[in-house]
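Annex B, item 7. Sequence and structure tokens for protein A, then protein B.
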Amino acid sequence: MNRKAVCCFEILAAVLVLAASCSALADDSDASIAAGGLVPRRETRIVMAKEVLRISDKKVVVDYDFRNDSDQDVTTEVAFPIPPYSNGFVEGPSPDEQSFQSFKLWVDGKPIHYESEAKATLNDKDVTVVLKENKIDIPTFGHFEDKNDSKGYEVINTPDFSRLPKTARDRLTKAGIFKLYDQLPAGQWTVHLQYHWTQTFPAHSTVHIRHEYSPAVGFMQVDTTEVEDSLAQFKTGRSPNDDSGEVKWLAGFCADQPFLSVLERQLSQSKSQAKTEDERLWAGVAGSSWVDFILTSANTWQRPIEDFTLIIERGKPEQGEKRLISFCSPENGKVERLDADHFQVHLTNFVPTSELRIGFFDMPLPKPAQPATAK
């Protein structure tokens, strides 16, 4: 069975009767940030005996069993690397989202303190020292704030910049490290951040490590026309590479013909039933979100992963919405339905060769037919 059939067909049978929240209806598309698993610093003596990866659009939880088969204890630095990110001021994710401030860590059931290491670059030039000399926090772009006050007014502030004397502010602005938007300063550097700690793996023993975080989710709207264009590739025999834009994007979730047919039917029904201006605004539109996960970081340990389990959670429904999910199953693994909202892929001796992207597609449910009024 091919990858598309594996990941979509079995899921499709379960999703037809379920509703879910529509958290992705945004005016513009936003990219997700692909975080992944734990990475040792040049260490391949430790076996990843087991990995259980749980993904929803709200939380990612990973449980590992790491085994040391050698006769000696192994002590190494373990890191949770975060992809480089820039200030999302004006549009884009907040620094907290991009830096995965929600990251938590346990070893053998006990919470563990970890260190952070942050560097900053501007046009490929390291500006870490300059920012540290001015006591400007690198991961948060100087503790950048964009929030509403008690009266609901938007307040934008960069306290680390604002407290500096004017000469220092002018110098940082002239160097391009900060840019003023209507006199509001925003840091322009790229953050290179990782969380790390020292971990000992005793000889002939297994260490259980668990970490979790809230994912930086991507968002995009998909309308009926785009779904119909994707369906056309199956009818005409075209490859997804023959198309562009949303067609290729949908193909990245291994969205197959049955999945797209259900999506198209739901959107068409909501469009035909729209009566008010507000209903017509959102009719025929699916709010899609996705979570990226870097699977190949596991290859920095001794390969393969002896026992790997992926569990996808659909998410809680909201009234009047319905959610479909689709993803490319790793190694074309069989997708099993655990219950109405959880799906599982189990693999043994798994060596990841690609990354993972989970798609959540939310849309309005068709309204039930109104009974005829007696005359």
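Protein B:
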Amino acid sequence: MAVVNDQLEGIPLDWGSPYSFYGLKNDPESWEKARAVIIPVPYDGTTTYVSGTREGPRAVILASRELEPYDEETGTEPWKFGIFTLEELPVVVSSPEEMVALVKDVSLRVIQSGKVPVLLGGEHLMSLGVIQAIGSGYGKEEVTILHFDAHADLRDEYQSSRYSNACVMRRALEFFPVVSIGVRSLTREEHEFAIGNSDVNIFFAQNIWESPEILDEAIKLLNPHVYVTIDLDVLDPSIMPAVGTPEPGGITWYQLLKILRHTSETRKIIGFDVMELRPIPGNVAPDFTAARLIYKMLAYVFSSPFYGE
């Protein structure tokens, strides 16, 4: 227990809590064996349309209990890799910047413990905390952020704040280049910024529908290490209606899985997040879809040539 406490000083823990992904045990032995750590962040302080993503982490974790253990695509049972779930991070409602700093601190401790951080939001701005933590140990040329989103999120500021949901990829660019997949909503200024910046590559949803093979071009742009950030609104609303700003014309479930698996087979994924679920009372399909996506990602990450069984 002493080793665990030294590693996790300052991280909210609740040993023995039933609140865990897939219903797995949260105890010191589970921590030692875990290769991935779920970091739930129930925060949606800068959302501007429909709020409620703060309820996302709990809904996903509850849905994860109904997942089947076996992944037929990889032939693995991801829960056996070891998945530890932290207690929900306390929310700092007064300052999104302080909230990002908290996520960074917790993520850094997870990374330093040799485990893969899996952020569960909550609003997309919180991804910046993990990206900042990764930036403490990697150079710009070593990592690419693979960004799945309906929105470019490249505004320099929004509503007089540089720490807004609409600015997360602009802030992320201060650390690593970004490859964005599935974008179909952005401002003229964001588009012009992306065109003029060699560290930004956007693959628009319409172009993916017309020429699915362009996703292979996206893979070629990735550095040896990849952080994957998934805003669930990248998926078409027919699949994922439970988001704050559902944009028509999104990518499909299998398009998303194809590029994620290809990435895991050719690059080392050093962390990922699944963000922006806004649960809809009475409709559990989106909750289950998000939980299944996390489970698939764990299967891809830990069955890849970079991790092994």
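Comment on protein B: The CA atoms of residues 155 and 167 lie 5 Å apart.
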